[in-house]
Write a structure and sequence with these properties.
The complex is a heterodimer of chains A (about 425) and B (about 600).
Chain A lengths: L22 H8 L21 E7 L5 H4 L8 H5 L10 E3 L5 E6 L4 H8 L3 E8 L7 H10 L10 H8 L10 E4 L13 E3 L14 H13 L5 H18 L14 H14 L6 E6 L17 H20 L6 E7 L19 E7 L5 E2 L20 E2 H13 L3 H7 L16
Chain B lengths: L5 H4 L20 H21 L91 H8 L5 H10 L1 H10 L6 H10 L7 H7 L5 H15 L3 H13 L13 H11 L4 H10 L1 H6 L16 H8 L11 H10 L3 E6 L2 E8 L26 H13 L2 H15 L9 H12 L4 H9 L2 H4 L9 H12 L13 H9 L24 H17 L8 H5 L7 H12 L5 H10 L13 H13 L8
Antiparallel strand pairs in B: 1-2
The chains are: A alpha/beta (about 425), B mainly alpha (about 600).
């Protein structure tokens, strides 16, 4: 990838073509296993940029007005009635960018700590620039990031492809949770349920048997070139990941859907694997009924918030000092309507509070707040004030070194320039 | 894009996954899929002992039993090249017209009320006279045909190809009636009822979302068991060509009827199929056509109009622009389905109240060489779609897509083999069968052995066909549905779960990579050690792959059966790791354990990953 030039000068300089890793090339040259580390870190050299971006996608349309309640909005209490977050139990946004207009859900103590530590930025009314209340369509549009201009690829996939380098580490991007997320499509990223998916099944031939067998078969010749080119990196990766040892959830790690998906990412980053992009997701935010009081910890919405909060907290605990190199973005396909429905839930809305956490973040609340008064709503919805693509564009640029040229590939048809950014990154 | 009904329609998915383990997750989530894993792991203990293949025995699928193919003894093993001496004079010199389509209207779709004009429009392309078909290639081998045109060779398939000759077998596959697989169809209707129902029937049956696992499971079982293997591969192509995501909440319940529609039209006229797809509840909901309206101030949804041209027919560079997309969206406004419980899942209707011709108000307004002339209303839309089906650009693009699928992704769009197939398609009134026959009897096809990497479903099905055969355990089919989903889940190709309208990718490079290679190697272990419960390996039958008495002889037979070449040195190394030599008797204790280990390594071989 080219070095950072041009208009996006707010970015710290990032290196040239060698900024990533050598697993493919070095292992091929060495012809053996695990000669990959430069510094003795587990199986992999540290990246030159050392930066990671993890997107946590909340599927179902998360209720931002409960996750990040606008307590200072004079219409909030009336709009939300029994579902509202109470001032007394809300988690305050304190610290260097203290904000009393907004707060966090009572079940979000870890997020509140991150905010207090200056590790969190929030964009309370971000999202898709077009109103689409279908989960399916909205998620796909958002993750594709191309609004019909490019089939079969996602914004992250285009980022990875447009910056691909032969020396890229095979773990440069990896998703956990199952199917390739739409954002990663178009790029042969790995997707797995867990780290054990990236190992050979223990009841099959062992690693040495597989290696010997593959090497012998390839030596016969006549193999499809794609198979011969991928076999050695795969064998090396299997060996390299095997050095992680036990990859089960450690004691005390939240054994939740999101926790299980963030654990392998934390483990890889902690061990020095150069994961530049990763994706994890949590379903279940489609709270049409019985959303529950925020003060009731076992209520539907409360337990979702607690799950998000616990998993993100454990993640940052685990990666420790690597927090400076690690940025997490939390997003959802849409927020929910301002009014509570007759089933004690909320229906599909538009804007959602995007959160940016971790390294390089400028703490605070960013972007205009459109307000919840009747004359401020659009069709019963919080009005969108920030295009989600500008938030992701800023993060990609300031954290991962994307140029304006990259951004026009990542989000085609969208003008992504510093002038339009809200400043979530330093 | 937003419509009045979107909001009402998108919450039909179930609150929970079908397995308790995924309870905190939504329906298409990792939690449910983790549960798939759990089932597979759980199945391990059962498979080796509880399930016997081909049970009940009367379910045996395939051609009548034939004597095994004589194989030369020897330690270096490849499948023998069959004789290819079939005289060319028995090959039909012209492709027979499609015989099945007109009578196979799917249950939920009303037939066209207007006979589509095919050649009367001003811009209609001239019908091209095909050149004399070339003689079938003489180097077309049974092995290649079996590997490429089925989900994996079996002794029965190879014997049939050798009996009929490769071209004769291809012609047979192109003309077998649907009743050929009647027993399999009946089993699938019983085990996976939502895969043959329309949406109304599925909602009446309840738990309509169960189709999320039923349809991939049915497709997976069909891939292994169908006798009409080429038909099955063609249906898989059509699902990618006319993709609908089964996880789309609007389309989901209609996907059973949609699958039936593609099956019935697979070898018929593309024009008929294109019209059926355009009228189908699944596609109309998936691409928002069903809620498109042009009355009052409403602007019609462009989604389907765009994909109709970009993906279904002429292609993105096919000669239309954004204004044309908008114009076609108007032309098709009013195409919808009757509302049933507020959802447009009933029979197809043309609702003239929400239809406007838009730019086509002008009878001479032209898109892609077509103008409506005196046609109005629904007939105008039918006329345009019919025009698209027989447009030369559609013919070339469809022929290229099929060439990539069946010959290889090295084929270029303007290669002669593609052009010839496109001409055959046009000459035979948009016959998919004629197009396929042209491609599959080409020299390019004959020369393409092992050029393609098996896609995940092809890999899994071929492993099952090679080791467990094509019989099934009907009693376990339904309870194994999530295990069948799991077959392709780890390699990201669960049938019908691709989210975009463009279908699963069809380039070899899309299916390899570090994660994919690990998944492929582990798949061999799953199949040999685990299985889904529906198919399981009869180790007595596997042992009897050879009439010999030594494990060396068995190993040679196993390599032959799977098409993998292993040198004696490598064989001896593998055997030594299992404390054996080639001369070790097959009666030796722990023999199944040894066969399992060897079979996994054979199926992990690079030459097994291609077809």
């Amino acid at each position: 990838m080219e070095t950072t030039t041009g208009q996006l000068t707010g970015t710290e300089p990032v290196g040239g073509p060698s900024r990533r890793h050598f697993l493919v090339g070095a292992a091929a040259a060495a012809g053996t296993t695990v000669v990959l580390g430069r510094t003795g870190s587990v199986g992999a050299a540290a990246p030159v940029t050392g930066r990671s971006l993890i997107v946590i996608f909340l599927r179902g349309g998360a209720d931002g007005l409960t996750l990040l309640p606008p307590l200072g909005d004079p219409s909030y209490a009336a709009r939300r009635g029994a579902l509202r977050v109470q001032t007394g139990t809300a988690r305050a946004l304190s610290g260097p960018a203290a904000n009393t207009y907004f707060a966090l859900h009572p079940q979000a103590p870890r997020l509140a700590s991150l905010y207090q530590a200056g590790r969190m930025a929030v964009v309370p009314a971000a999202g898709l620039p077009v109103i689409n209340r279908s989960h399916f369509d909205a998620q796909l549009m958002m993750e594709a990031g191309s609004f019909g201009l490019a089939h079969g690829s996602g914004w992250a996939g285009r980022w990875l492809n447009s910056t691909a380098d032969p020396n890229d580490h095979v773990l440069r991007s990896i998703g956990f949770g199952g199917t390739t997320p739409a954002s990663l499509r178009g790029h042969p990223s790995m997707v797995a349920y867990s780290l054990s998916d990236l190992s050979l099944l223990s009841w099959g031939p062992n690693r040495q048997q597989v290696r010997t067998n593959q090497v012998e078969r390839l030596a016969q010749g006549g193999t499809h070139p794609l198979l011969s080119s991928w076999t050695t990196p795969t064998l090396d990766t299997v060996d390299s990941l095997a050095t992680l040892g036990d990859t089960n959830l450690p004691t005390g790690w939240p054994n939740t859907a999101l926790g299980r998906r963030l654990w392998p990412i934390a483990r890889l980053i902690e061990a020095g694997f150069p994961v530049e992009f990763s994706h994890a997701e949590l379903d279940g935010w489609d709270t049409h009924s019985a959303q529950g009081s925020p003060d009731e910890p076992t209520a539907n919405m409360s337990s979702l918030v607690a799950q998000l909060d616990g998993a993100v907290g454990a993640f940052f605990d685990r990666i420790g000092s690597r927090v400076d190199q690690t940025t997490v973005v939390v997003m959802s396909e849409f927020g929910r309507r301002a009014e509570v429905n007759s089933s004690g839930g909320t229906d599909h809305g538009t804007a959602f509070p995007m959160m940016v956490l971790g390294g390089g973040v400028r703490p605070g609340v960013f972007g205009p707040w459109p307000g919840l008064a009747s004359n401020q709503l659009v069709d019963g919805d919080l009005r969108l004030s920030v295009d989600y693509r500008s938030v992701l564009g800023e993060v990609l640029s300031r954290r991962l070194g994307a140029t304006s040229s990259h951004l026009s590939t990542v989000f085609p048809g969208f003008s992504n320039s510093p002038a339009g950014w809200v400043g979530v990154c330093q | 894009m937003p419509t009045a009904t979107d909001h009402d329609l998108d919450d039909t998915t179930p609150p929970d996954g079908p397995e308790g383990a995924g309870a905190e997750d939504g329906p298409a989530s990792g939690g449910r899929r983790a549960a798939v894993r759990g089932l597979l792991v759980g199945g391990l203990a059962v498979a080796a002992t509880a399930c016997r293949p081909n049970a009940p025995a009367s379910r045996k699928v395939g051609a009548p039993a034939r004597p095994p193919i004589a194989r030369p003894p020897g330690s270096t093993t490849t499948l023998p090249v069959p004789p290819t001496t079939r005289p060319p004079t028995t090959t039909p010199t012209t492709t027979p017209p499609p015989t099945t389509t007109p009578t196979t209207t799917p249950p939920t779709t009303t037939p066209p009320t207007t006979t589509p004009p095919t050649t009367t429009t001003p811009g209609a392309p001239p019908t091209t006279t095909p050149p004399n078909p070339p003689a079938p290639p003489t180097n077309l081998t049974a092995t290649h045909v079996a590997r490429r045109l089925t989900y994996g060779p079996t002794p029965e398939v190879l014997a049939r190809i050798q009996q009929l000759g490769p071209v004769g077998w291809i012609d047979e596959q192109l003309s077998l009636p649907p009743s050929t697989d009647a027993d399999l169809d009946a089993q699938i209707r019983t085990s996976f009822p939502r895969t043959t129902n329309d949406a109304i029937q599925n909602f009446a049956l309840g738990e309509a979302w169960e189709i999320l696992s039923e349809l991939p499971a049915a497709t997976t079982v069909r891939a292994v068991c169908a006798r009409r293997q080429l038909h099955e591969l063609t249906v898989a192509f059509l699902w990618d060509h006319f993709n609908v995501d089964l996880r789309n909440d609007r389309a989901q319940a209609s996907c059973g009827a949609y699958d039936q529609l593609l099956r019935m039209g697979a070898f018929g006229r593309f024009r008929d199929l294109l019209l059926e797809v355009a009228r189908s509840a699944a596609m109309m909901n998936y691409l928002n056509q069903a809620t498109s309206r042009a009355d009052g101030s409403n602007v019609p949804v462009e989604n389907f109009a765009r994909e109709l041209m970009e993906l279904h027919t002429v292609g993105v560079d096919g000669g239309y622009d954004e204004d044309d997309v908008k114009a076609v969206a108007y032309l098709l406004s009013g195409w919808t389905r009757q509302l049933v419980d507020w959802q447009p899942i009933g029979p197809f209707v043309f609702n003239s109240a929400v239809h406007r011709l838009g730019p086509f108000q002008d009878p001479a307004h032209s898109v892609l060489g077509w103008s409506r002339g005196s046609l109005t209303g629904e007939a105008a839309g039918v006329g345009f779609i019919s025009h698209l089906a027989s447009h030369p650009t559609t013919a070339q693009r469809l022929a290229h897509e099929l060439a990539v699928r069946f010959i290889g992704d090295h084929v270029n769009r303007n290669d002669a083999v593609v052009t010839t197939a496109a001409q055959a398609y046009l000459a035979a009134d948009t016959s998919i069968r004629a197009l396929l026959r042209s491609l599959l009897t080409s020299n390019e096809f004959a020369a393409s052995a092992n050029a393609r990497i098996r896609r995940p479903l092809e890999l899994w099905a071929s492993m099952v066909r090679a080791t467990a055969g094509t019989g099934w355990n009907g009693a376990r089919m339904r309870e194994s549905r999530w295990g069948l989903v799991g077959a392709t889940d780890s390699l990201n190709q669960v049938p019908h779960w691709w989210p975009d309208p463009d279908g699963y990718p069809d380039r070899d490079a899309n299916w390899v990579g570090v994660g994919a290679m690990i998944g492929r190697w582990n798949m061999a272990t799953w199949v040999v050690r685990g299985m889904s419960g529906v198919f399981s390996i009869d180790w007595t039958a596997v042992r009897n792959w050879t009439t010999g008495t030594t494990i060396g002889e068995w190993f040679a037979a196993a390599c032959q059966r799977t098409g993998v070449t292993v040198s004696n040195t490598a064989r001896d190394r593998m055997l030594a790791e299992l404390y054996r030599t080639a001369a070790s008797p097959l009666s030796q204790s722990g023999n199944q354990w040894a066969m399992e280990n060897l079979l996994i390594q054979i199926l992990q071989a690079p030459d097994y990953q291609t077809r």
